[in-house]
Specification:
79 residues; mainly alpha; 65% helix
């Protein structure tokens, strides 16, 4: 299990933005997990920054396909 360090701002932004997108779009964890092609349990781990770093790329591409968000917006700032 990988835990995102608090000083890794890009990944902290990513985690924050996943949660924000879910809330802004009024999605349940189950619905967001389906969009990301992961389980609700994995989504909970992601929201806490406790997920394997190898999954971030896959998750990002699913976010991009569904929400049309850019890499720069997803990792570069908090939405």
């Amino acid at each position: 299990m990988y835990i995102v360090p608090e000083d890794d701002q890009q990944f902290q932004n990513f985690i924050h933005n996943v949660n924000t997108l879910r809330e802004q779009n009024h999605l349940t964890r189950r619905q967001m997990a389906d969009i990301l092609h992961i389980t609700p349990y994995m989504l909970r781990l992601l929201e806490r920054g406790q997920i394997s770093s190898r999954l971030y790329a896959d998750i990002f591409f699913h976010l991009r396909a569904h929400f049309g968000i850019s890499f720069k917006d997803m990792f570069g700032r908090r939405i």
